[in-house]
Every structure is written in C-alpha cells, then in structure tokens.
C-alpha cells in the first residue's frame, strides 16, 4: 500500500484552518500590538481539542497529525520509536492514536529541532519511559528560555526529565524495530538545532521543518536559521534520497521527493527575488509591497505563513 496516495485521499483536517487563523492573527498582532496574546497561546488552545489523524506510510510507520508538527511512529515488537512529540496538551488524543496502532511502549523519541510544536510533548513521552534523542543545539535551547519575536513568544525551559538525554553532535545510526534508522544532522537550516531521520528499509524520511508540504515555511532567523541554510539543508536531503522515498514534512500532508524539489525551487526563486530588491536598497516594507512571492502564492500562500510574513522572514534572514 502506498502511503502518499492514502494521504491524498484524506480531506484536509480542521486543524489547519484553526491554526492558520491563529497564526495569521498572531502576525497582525506582532506588527501592531506588542501587548496582545501570542499566537502560541491560541495554538495551544486549539490543540486541546483538535483530533489526531493517522496516515499509514510504509512498513510499520505511521504519521500522526493534529498536534502542532507532524509526528512519525515506528511500531515494532521492540516497542515504538517516535519522531517529534507535538504539543503536550494533545497527550490524550496522541496516546489514543498510538494505542490504536498497538499497545507497545514508546522506547525512543527523536526531536527534529527545538520548537515547542515538536518538543512540548517530551514532557509526557519521557514520563512514559522513552529515551529522548536530539542535537546538542536542541538540548541547549530547551534547557533555557528562548525568545521568538515573530511568534511574540518566550518559550520557558522544559522540565529536567523532558530534556533529551541522548545528545548528538554528529550523524548516528540506530538499529531498531527491523529498521536501520539514520539520524542526520543539518545545522544551521530552519534553526540551529535541526536533524532529520531516514528509515532505510521502509524508505521513509521524517524531515521536521526542513519541509512544509504545499505551504510557506517558518524559518527561525533569531535562533540560527535562515533562508540560505534552509536551501542548503534541502539540497543535502534531495541528494541523499531516492525518487521512491515517502516524506513526512513538519507541516502539511505526506509528500514525495518531487514535492520537496518544488518546495526547494520555490525557496530559491523567492530568495533571488527578495535579494535583488534588497540589493536595490529597498526597505522591508517596500520589498513586501513588490510581492516577490507572487508567482508561488497560489500554491504556497494559503496557510500559517502568508506571503507577507514569508517575505519578511526571507528579507530578515538574508546575510
Ligand atoms: Zn519549527
């Protein structure tokens, strides 16, 4: 059974519109009202009730959506391995989705990067007995308060037990549940904490926020990310995967290598347009007004990061 086809057959889940509204509102607030509520608060509120959708991938791998970033689950007689843990308030619904796969315990959790919509669930997954794996950068950022101005949010440190205990400073390969699980570091790119996970036998890769399928991405300029790093990271991933790979994006539906290539080409095209305008001496607002993303807006401009927001991210991320 081919996962992406199943995924395409599923209707777009309710979560996306809720989150899109929250993020769009948050961006307007970020520009106009420093005292207003962070979109992070609204997203956490939405996550309290959003249902979790399970999409079968290949082998015994499943994608769970509806708790912030997408979650990948490998089920096996040895237990489960997860990539990313979503937002903590989704715990009852994520647990229900995990139990629907099997009643085996979670043995490992790999955090793709430090952002709360991927690591907040570390709190309960660690209590369930899992070993948490992440880059040294993620460990550093979740161990202290981290500010993201674009989200009007300061993320408090995770509690001690929820901080990853297996710290990676270079690529590492695990053998778990009948899969060769290759953890590959890509920093800096979306942040300065990123990695992605390749399940060799299943030919499935969990890309974290290096890939937002069909939508403009957030890039965390303030914490080591940037448009150039994103492009470099995606080029590295594209060079390492074959055409038949199934991709779990950080946000959006299950994807193909072709879709990742199109996403990467969009990043390159918009980077070039914004850089050319910036080189002419145009201000950030003038560059936004010139609509350097116009060619891609029909495809990518309908979600959390709208065309104006993405233009500002690219402009501010150019070195
Ligand atoms: Zn992220």
What would you say this structure looks like, in words?
By secondary structure, the chain is α/β, with parallel strands linked by helices. The protein has one domain (3-266): Ribonuclease Z/Hydroxyacylglutathione hydrolase-like (Metallo-beta-lactamase, Chain A, 4-Layer Sandwich). It is 39% helix and 19% strand. The protein has twelve helices and 14 strands. Strand 2 and strand 3 form a beta hairpin. Helix 2 packs antiparallel against helix 3 (39-47) and helix 8 (227-240) packs antiparallel against helix 9 (257-279). It starts with a helix and ends with a helix. The structure holds zinc ion. Residues 113, 115, 190, 209, 218, 250 line the site of zinc ion.
Which key terms come to mind for this protein?
globular, about 325 residues, single chain, seven-stranded mixed β-sheet, alpha/beta, about 20% strand, binds zinc ion, Metallo-beta-lactamase, Chain A, disordered N terminus
């Amino acid at each position: 059974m081919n996962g992406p086809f199943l995924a395409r057959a599923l209707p777009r889940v309710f979560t996306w519109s809720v989150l899109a509204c929250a993020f769009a509102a948050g961006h307007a607030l970020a520009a106009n009202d420093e005292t207003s509520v962070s979109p992070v608060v609204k997203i956490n509120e939405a996550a309290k009730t959003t249902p979790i959708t399970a999409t079968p991938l290949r082998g015994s791998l499943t994608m769970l959506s509806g708790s912030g970033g997408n979650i990948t689950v490998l089920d096996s007689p040895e237990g489960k391995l997860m990539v990313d843990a979503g937002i903590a308030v989704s715990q009852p619904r994520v647990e229900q989705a995990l139990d629907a796969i099997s009643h085996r315990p979670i043995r490992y959790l790999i955090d793709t990067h430090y952002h709360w919509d991927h690591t907040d669930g570390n709190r309960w997954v660690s209590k369930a007995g899992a070993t948490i794996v992440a880059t040294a950068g993620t460990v550093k950022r979740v161990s202290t308060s981290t500010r993201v101005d674009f989200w009007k949010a300061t993320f408090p440190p995770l509690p001690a037990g929820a901080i990853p205990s297996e710290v990676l400073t270079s690529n590492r390969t695990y053998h778990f549940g009948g899969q060769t699980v290759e953890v590959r570091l890509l920093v800096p790119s979306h942040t300065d904490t990123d990695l992605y996970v390749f399940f060799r036998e299943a030919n499935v890769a969990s890309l974290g926020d290096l890939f937002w399928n069909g939508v403009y991405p957030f890039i965390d300029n303030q914490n080591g990310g940037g448009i150039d790093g994103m492009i470099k990271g995606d080029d590295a991933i594209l060079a390492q995967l074959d055409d038949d790979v199934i991709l779990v994006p950080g946000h959006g539906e299950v994807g193909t290598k072709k879709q990742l290539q199109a996403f990467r080409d969009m990043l390159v095209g918009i980077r070039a347009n914004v850089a050319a305008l910036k080189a002419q001496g145009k201000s950030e607002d003038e560059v936004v007004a010139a609509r350097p993303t116009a060619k891609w807006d029909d495809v990518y401009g309908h979600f959390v990061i709208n065309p104006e927001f993405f233009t500002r991210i690219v402009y501010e991320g150019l070195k």
